[in-house]
Amino acid sequence: xxxxxxxxxxxxxxxxxxxxxxxxxxxxxxxxxxxxxxxxxxxxxxxxxxxxxxxxxxxxxxxxxxxxxxxxxxxxxxxxxxxxxxxxxxxxxxxxxxx
Length: 99
Hints:
By secondary structure, the chain is an alpha+beta fold. It has helices at residues 10-23, 27-31, 36-44, 51-58, and strands spanning 65-74, 77-85, 91-97. It has a three-stranded antiparallel sheet with strand order 1-2-3. A hairpin with a 2-residue loop joins strand 1 and strand 2.
């Protein structure tokens, strides 16, 4: 008798789907994104806002789980690309101005 593998909880499935979606965003975007050190330097120098400030400005629920963060060039302006998992299990990508 065959048994079915247990289904992962919805929030894990959504996080996996989000991670796969972000992984498929293309190499051109990856080349135009800052690494962690560059992001820290840009925040320290005032070139971009901190992640907390951007999330607060956008009205993102403080209890939402941040899955990943990138800062990328989008047509000459820097934006945060943020994977967010809300408390109700909804995963989404946010693209918010970093400046």
